[in-house]
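dumping this here before i forget
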Amino acid sequence: MNTMPPPVDWQTRESLLLAPYAMHAADSTGRVHPEPPHPIRSPYQRDHDRIVHSSAFRRLAHKTQVFTGYLGDYHRSRLTHTLEVTGIARTLGRGLALNEDLVETLALAHDIGHPPLGHAGEDTLDELLAHEGGFNHNAQALRIMELLESRYPDFPGLNLSREILEAQAARVKGRPAAGIRPTAAPLLETQVVDAADSIAYDTHDADDAIELGLVTLDELLDLPLVAAAAERVTDRYGPLDGIDHRRAVIHELVDMQVADLVAESQAALKRLGIDCVATVRAQQNDLGHPRRIAMHSPQIASGKKDLESFLFRKVYRSERVMGVRLAAQEKLSRLFHWYCDHPDSIAPSYRERTPSLGLRRSVADYIAGMTDRYLEWDHDRRL
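structure:
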């Protein structure tokens, strides 16, 4: 008679699967507001679920990634981008024997602070709040985690593990994480999520730009990184045409970058003698600044730089994209000023914070939480 094996607790599972330089949940520095441990889930599993169940995460489904106002449903939203980053980050984390629960949580949370209209909305709010500290989506994500997302009666925010807050705080320029030296390098889990974000937006923004007719694949094939991916596709499949060729090249672009980063990182871990989290933290360059271990080879890094420069010139600052962007920014700005003139119309939970945070910051918090389509609807009914 077959019997089921006994269940393995998460501490034992981590000790068996994770590298010594991975962040083990048993070594977490805990939460700002102490909570009793969960009998089944690790701290980072609980953080994962708190992000997924948050309102800010759900709203990503209807927030623009790059292409504001374009019809169709092929190009990415913030949510689909986030899920793609999470998949890539999980692969990187597994390849390096890192804590996948922590990696997935960091990836799922990395963009929850984005306002509607993508970077266009962020730039507009930053200008509107120029005298109130500005607006940055990374800082806003931290505000959501620590204050704005109210889902639990015992504390404000989501009360995530300090490692999650640290990773997010590290992305906010000029704000060192509490309890962490400003010169300390990020956890490897944080490093691979940042790398996955770069891989995802470089590659998938190019794919969306082709779909929308902003650039052609032939133009991209002039770039060394894309040309190398296309050559690998031809070697593997032979000649392909049309959409099959494009999809294969995009897939190969992601795979090349992932494989390169894992190989380069494994070599760096061995070369630098990284054997625990403390040695990850201690990495510094010749100038005494934190040094990252999860890096691409010089060849791939150079190719990515060329691709990003191309996308900036031909896509992000193209006449078509900028025209739509400016029209959307004007709507957001007009709605912001309307709420400043009619503060009683702000949602109650935001209005209650006005005495402590100020009116303009509270209005920005409220608008930042809107989806693209809600902002459009709210603008049209108000103005």
